[in-house]
Amino acid sequence: MNLIDWIYLGIGIGLGVGGYWLVARRDADAPTPAELKLQQELQQMQLACSMAQEMSQFKAGFLARTTHELRSPLNGLLGLHQLILSDLCENPAEEREFVAHAHERSLKLLGLIDEILNVSRVEHGTNKLEIQPLQLSHVLTEVSEITRMLAANRNFPVLISEPDPEIYVLADPRWFRQVLLNLVDLALYQIESGSIRISTQPESSTNIYTWIDVPTYTIDFDEPIDLMTQKTETQDKILPSKGTKLWLNQTLLEVMQGKLEIVNSPFSEELGEHYTRVQISIPLLSSEY
To answer: Minimal CA–CA distance to 210: which of 256, 244, 245, 242?
Structure first.
């Protein structure tokens, strides 16, 4: 071999080694399928951990919230009785009026306590659920019929996009309907403008989403402690706070293997108002049922 051949041989070897090094480096930098899967699992775990932490913080304050909501009407009752016992009523008619107010508040307070206790009994299995196939379109129609009068009185529409009548979910008929009614009523009592929109979308082959899009202020549960007992313009009614109402409904859904989340709504950009989506996930009826 002459000098030229040796030069070409050296260049060839150099190119080969350089090319191998570049390929090896590229392969080393590119994540393997196993690494990609691990990254996805870590991201999902981080998201789940974040959501669990937020819910844990909310549950940690549940006792304080509930205590406040029970104390407020109790203080009202004590005030009415104190007026009567201190002989501050101007006449027997006014005294009787105060007694009637106290009796009415007592009944409403009893209803609030019953609601909390009923959900607690369901959560702990004392009250058994009757999980059965439910036609989702029929449930939403019932919700529409029940809330129609209140929506008409408040002059705010509840717009429902009915799902395929072939879609069936697995849930307790009483409690699933009650959860939807609670969430719609909660928004209707607070709404001042806009509308309430209900729609559905399959989440996977095993679950389906029911979406309730409402103006953000009607569902935001970061209210200060002194605003937790809600009152409406339409009636003087002792209601659970928005945060407590959401927590109670989430508890019921979890017992039915469902889930309640608060997410961003696409209607904010479409309607030019701040909307929030209450996202309900519930199991679909499987072919094996």
So the answer is: 256
Q: What is the dihedral of CA 71, 77, 83, 85, to 10 degrees?
A: -110
Q: What burial letters (b/e) apply to 128-153, b meaning 16+ CB within 10 Å?
A: ebebeebbbbebbeebbeebeeebee
Q: Map out the domains of the chain with their CATH numbers.
A: 129-289 (3.30.565.10)
Which has the minimum average pLDDT: 32-41, 99-108, 222-231?
Answer: 222-231
Q: What is the pLDDT of residues 237-285, one digit of tens each?
A: 445 566 677 778 888 899 999 999 888 888 877 777 788 889 999 999 8
pLDDT exceeds 90 at position 208: yes
Q: What distance in Å separates the CA atoms of residue 278 and residue 219, rounded to the nearest whole number? A: 8
Helix, strand, or coil here: 133? strand
Contacts of 132 (CB under 8 A, 6+ apart): 170, 171, 172, 173
Q: What is the pTM of this model?
A: 0.62
CB atoms under 10 Å from CB of 31, counted, come to 10
Segment (H or E) for 132: strand 132-135
